[in-house]
Amino acid sequence: MEGELRRVAELVATEAAELVRERRRSAVEVETTKSSPVDVVTEVDRESEAFLRRRLAELRPEDGFFGEEGGRGSSSSGVTWVVDPIDGTVNFLYDIPQYAVSVAAVDDEGRSLAGAVVDVASGTRYSAALGAGATCDGRPLRVRATVPMGQRLALTGFQYQERVRAVQGPAVSRLLTRVRDIRRLGSAALDLCAIGAGRADAYVEEGLNLWDRAAGGLVATEAGARIDVLPGAGGMECVVCAPADGYDEWLDVVRECGFLG
After folding, report:
1. Whether the Cβ atoms of residue 192 and residue 203 lie closer than 8 Å to each other
2. Which residues contact 12 (CB under 8 A, 6 or more apart)?
3. Given its phi and psi angles, is residue 224 left (phi above 0), alpha (psi -120 to 50 degrees) or beta?
4. Active site residues
């Protein structure tokens, strides 16, 4: 079953990415905001989600649906599709080429069974199925070999709520002295895929939702990473991810720097 779910995820994520790419050729404006004045939604976010819901209903009519922009649908099959129609909306708004469409199939316990993340600007497609590995445009992925902490490149991001950012800022400042460097690229789904692709050594971010990590997290773990969702210092869930054999040391540093509650 996971193989079929992966095929569907790849297909609809690729189609939605084409829609988003086409819409970005015209002017994009903020339609509304969500958790804070800087947490923006565009008309294209909603158009992409509506497209994904329609296509998944055509291909998998008994499955459920859970979208970032509010789309909901119950499941009679035990499978629910969790989608982020544009992961990295602020990048999309500013035409910074680091945003993606993320599509994952999860079971009734929220476990990812299959997923795909398509980098809209480049067309690069990451996908994975539980127990079957992860690929990038069909090529198998593997995490980077673990290096000493001072040589690790870390990825992170910031929550839109000011109270959480107030905690994240000092934690990132402390982390900067412990690692090679830090990158904040703006798309959690692509960040997690970067761990799986061996383009970064570690990741931590508080405030992600299931749609942010369901597909990218599976890509990372199927490529040899470990991922945990832990209580964050700002009161929200904190995602911690790194190659499995270096994960424990990374978790210790994350805790010492003040990311966790």
Report:
1. yes
2. 52, 55, 56, 59, 103
3. left
4. 68, 84, 86-87, 89, 212
Phi-psi region of 60 (alpha: psi -120 to 50; beta: other; left: phi over 0): beta
Task: Name the CA radius of gyration of the chain, rounded.
Answer: 17
Q: Are strands 64-67 and 40-42 parallel, antiparallel or unpaired?
A: unpaired
Domains and CATH numbers, the chain: 2-140 (3.30.540.10), 149-257 (3.40.190.80)
- Phi, psi values for residue 42, rounded to 5°: -110, 165
β-pairing, 80-87 vs 64-67, is parallel
| Type of residue found at 37 | P
State the CB neighbour count (10 A cutoff) for residue 244.
15
- Of how many residues is the chain composed? 261
pLDDT tens sequence for the chain (261 residues): 899 999 999 999 999 999 999 989 887 777 666 566 655 678 999 999 999 999 999 999 999 999 988 878 899 999 999 999 999 999 999 999 999 999 999 999 999 999 999 999 999 999 999 999 999 999 999 999 999 999 999 999 999 899 999 999 999 999 999 999 999 999 999 999 999 999 999 999 999 999 999 999 999 999 999 999 999 999 999 999 999 999 999 999 999 999 999
Q: Provide the 10 A C-beta neighbour count for residue 251.
A: 19
Contact assessment for residue 64 and residue 75, using Cβ atoms and an 8 Å cutoff: yes
